[in-house]
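ugh ok fine here u go
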Amino acid sequence: MEMPQNRLWRSQIAGISLDGTAKMNPPHGQNADQTYVPHEDIFRKDINALRALAVTSVVGFHLHLSGFGGGFAGVDSFLVITGYLMGLKVVRSLISDRFSLVAFWTARMRRIYPALAVVVILTVIAGWFFMLPVQFFKHLLQSLSALAFVSNFAFSFDSGYFSAPAQTKALLHTWSLSVEWQFYFWMPIIAILTWRRRRSIDVLLGVFLSATMLSLAWCLWESHTNVTAQPFFSLRTRAWEPLVGGLIAIAETKYRSGWARPPFLTYIGWLLLLACTLVSMPENGWPNEYTILPVTGAALVIISRNEFLLLRNSATQRIGGWSYSIYLWHWPICVLVLGWCALHGTEADYETKAAVIVSSIAIGAASYSFIEQPFRANSSFWTATPLLKLSTSIFSVLAILTIAGYLDNGFAWRFPDYIQAAEAARRIDTPRGECFRNKNSTKPSPETYCSFGDLDQDPSLILWGDSFANQFLEPLSVSAATHHLHGLIATQSACRVYLGHPPSPCAAFIQETLRFILGPKGPSIIVIDSSWGRGDDATVVIDRLLDAGKTVILIKPLLNIGFDLPQRWIENQVRQGGPIPNWSVEATPSLLVSVQRATMEKFIVAKHATNPHFITIDPQTKICGDGSCTLVKDGKPNFRDTAHIASETAMQYLPLFDEALDKLSPQHGRFFHVQR
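structure:
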């Protein structure tokens, strides 16, 4: 039977750091971050190599390097490592009755916060000079969320259909740090409560195993039912990954002696990880069942404890040691370089990408040496109170700056007026935003269908479709009021009107709306627009509506520009060094979505050409003619992104809706009514 003192001697693990190291200090005179670890827990080169592969995979993926199609799975390896190292620390300290939540969180804060704070501060300074008003204000909000370790929530709610692209979010990668910190918060609390109740390693193992299975089950369910990006950023769907590492830690503690570690396990683990990096993994719905592969690979590497020659080379070990700082710095550098390339109308070539890699490693190494290490080495000074004061001060200054940015419109005065005009076009002012349903459910409708037009009349018209329908709400509303029509809004983001097999939650919304329209109180006039796929997607629904005696007004596709118009407009003006008040481009078949429109003409328009209940609206007629299409006119853009019209120029389409509704006026022998 093992002596209690020996067990205590081996179990004190508080000094394990995130790079796989463990400090070797005598048991006397040690602090919370300096505890004795037995020989088998000394710095592990295999874990350090695992971190090197993980950060290399992530960087390669973000730079779109060949052979890194699944590189984003490197984050999953990080999470397993985190769970293992922190699991060792917590479990063994609990066994020794020397665990302290404050000491644990302080050690984690000392490890993570300083380098993160420096990155946040420098990106804010850089953003002042390079970020446009709206983007800069969002960056300030994201900076606060990163420092508060809640950026996973912030980016989750900023991942909708109209959100800015990832390469404009310099702190997007901090979501994983937030997930880790939330794990640091909950995991030890659950472990403490479990241990104090039963003081049994078996019970602790059972609780962690149950939590792992619950999180995995939730992850698999969400990956197939939630079409938003929220599961990607959520601790609920990610917790099973660090918990797998925690299970290994608990099992090692329980079965320290006699745990067989066949050498082939390490080779299987590394092969799995390399395969996940090299093969393009399905990003949509991640994490999902495929995530089990990199998690299993990382787990096998940790379990096997095999430090073969390839893992022990100096370059691998250095990259592993610098991995946290490299991870922190590589993405802001990517964003800066990609933004510079876009501004100058060039693509990031291999030389540019190589420069990003070298810069990330160099700055990461400097961050490790001059930020990470000094804070960790001065653990006696950087205790809970100084760290709290430091973090509070930085957060407060940024909070004040954020409030000022809100009040001062993102400090728009930093840029010339013509840049501000282009930037204003990017602001999403969704018409009747409280009624436009989106896939993140951030704007639930206060009523089943919101109203517009002449509210003194019974509802006789409905606008049905996705964001491409909703963008015409303003001119349609004015026209409906003029024609004394009461309209209803049935629009949902990324949910085209299609009766085939639309993805959830579109199916429920479409079926619900169709039942209402065909019901006894359904409106008689249906205005339809969507992001039509092939062009004939609306055939079934239009046939069904017309067969039911409804009047259908079909809005034809507008343009597919192929690039973010306001951004390109800004870039062109910067390169020119002055305003570009008017901008027209050649009306190419691709721009005019000619194939889609031709299919629609063949299968829908021609089919119902003689039906007086079928009317079409062609918005192209307002901005295209003589072989060109106008993108910017009189300093105002016609689009707010690659295809959606800008709110400030939406009223130019009013005559088209007036003309369509005029055809339904009493003098043409047609009257509006609601079926009762």
